[in-house]
Design goal:
Blueprint: H1 3-21, E1 45-53, E2 62-63, E3 72-73, E4 75-81, E5 86-90, H2 93-98, H3 100-147, H4 150-156, H5 158-170, E6 174-186, E7 192-205, H6 209-213, H7 217-236, H8 241-273, H9 276-288, E8 291-295, E9 298-302, E10 306-310, H10 318-326
Antiparallel strand pairs: 1-4, 2-3, 4-5, 6-7, 8-9, 9-10
Bound molecules: zinc ion.
The site of zinc ion has 6 residues, from loops.
Amino acid sequence: MNGTDDLEASEAIVRQTAILAAGLSIDDPETIPGLVYPLPADAELATLVQDYDTQRSTGRKVRCSACSQHQFHYRGFVVELADGARALIGINCGEAHFGEGEWKGMHARLRQKQDMAYFEARIAPTLRQIEICYPTLVAWREAVGRLEVRPLLQRVLPDFHRMIVAACRENEGHLHRYRYRRVVEQAANGTERLRKEVETIPYGTVPAPLAYLDGSLRKKLSDASEDLRVAKNLLLGDPDAISLKAAFKRLRNGLKEIEDAAEICRGHRRNLAGQWWHGACRMFTDEAGEQITLNGRTLLLKSYSTTKVRLPDEEPPKLWNAALAAWPR
Ligand SMILES: [Zn+2]
């Protein structure tokens, strides 16, 4: 089964559950008290009240009350007669006995009630979740600027920023300097030769290097907002099976986007909180010969003049937790 079949199957279950709960379908129609059998020749049908498919419930065929041979069948309808009594009619018998047009009309009205029950059970809660989730997503997107330290560093301390980017991109976040030297080595035959040696000087590690590099946070949140908007329009526009499927596919895509975005934000938080900034300052000072120190949350570069950058305080994770919790599924 591919994803679409999975969705179709799971949606069919959601629909059937909703219809059963609304009393518009029944698992075991034979438990209905006072069923009329057989149907009198002059019986007048009022409505179809429920459908059933005993192949997927009791596994037992039931007797049709309408046709002369009283055929056994799995699928059929509970019908209400003009006097309020109920009877069971097989799926193929209604038309033959009561005329195609009238039967079709009654069947359509039952379908419509079932669609509404499904709508109430599935679509209405989804629309409510969209209403709750959307502003949370917008607030989260606005708060992103307070978590991302990179644009600030890039602007104010570009060399320092470049050093961190290189560590994240080329060395999985490890802040290393390499010192090369040549040592004289005695070969077995007594001759001397020069060998190059590399010494690694560690200064710590950026906790979440991928988050530091990732520039897709705002885009992911915008895409997720767009998914909510499109899904909402599809669900509001008197959806058929195809547009329903499209709507829930959108919502699944969006969920993936905000899960990715939450992962990036968790990385930003770890990067903002860590002690590794002190190591990065030391490394820069050793490498560039210009002194950067971290004073509380403020980076100080002492050059011809003093440059100050205040690291953003870490945001509590409530926004993305709220968005993940409210996301319609
Ligand atoms: Zn029949």
